[in-house]
Write a structure and sequence with these properties.
Blueprint (H helix, E strand, L loop, with lengths): L5 H17 L3 H13 L2 H7 L2 H13 L4 H19 L5 H29 L6 H32 L3 E6 L2 E6 L1
Antiparallel strand pairs: 1-2
Helix pairs in contact: 1-2, 1-3, 4-5, 4-6, 5-6, 6-7
Length: 175
Amino acid sequence: MLELPEATRERIHELQELADKAQVDEGARQELRRRLSQEAPEVVTRCSDSARSYRRLLAKRSSAGNPLREEAISERARRMAQELAGENPTPLEVLLSERVASLWVLVELQEALLAAWYHKASAASPAFVLQMARLQESSNRRYLGAIKTLAQVQKLQGPSRVQVNIGGNQVNVSR
C-alpha cells in the first residue's frame, strides 16, 4: 500500500499537470475537482499526503545542503514507514507508520539544531536555547506517543502471521 504501481504514479503525474494549469485557469481547477472526485482512494491519499512533503522539507534543512544526506534522510523515512506498517497494513497502520517516520525526521532535526545551539552557546541566549529544548522535548513526546499508538494498534490486530498445523502440514496464514 505504501508503494505505488506505475499506473497510479502516471495518474498522479497527469493530475499534477492539470493542477499546474489550475493555478491560472479556473476551468482547469473545476476539471481537477471533477477528476479528483472520480479517482481511486490511493490516488487522492497520495496527492493529499503533506507528511511526505514536509519530511522532504525537514530533510533538506537537516542536510545542510548535502544532496546525499538529504536524499538518504528522505529514503530512510520512507523505508521506516514501510517497515513499520508491515505486510498487508490496515489504513490506520499506514497512517500511524507515516506519522512515526515524519516525527522521526523532525526529532532528528531538532536534536541536531539543539546540539548546534549548545555548541554556539555564546550566539544564542539561554532563554532561546531553553525554548528550543522545550520544542524538542515536545516533538520527542509526540514521536514516542505515535510509536506507542502504532504498537497498540498492531497488538490489537494480533500477529501478522500465524502458523497453523493442519493434518501434519504447517500452514502460514497472513492477516
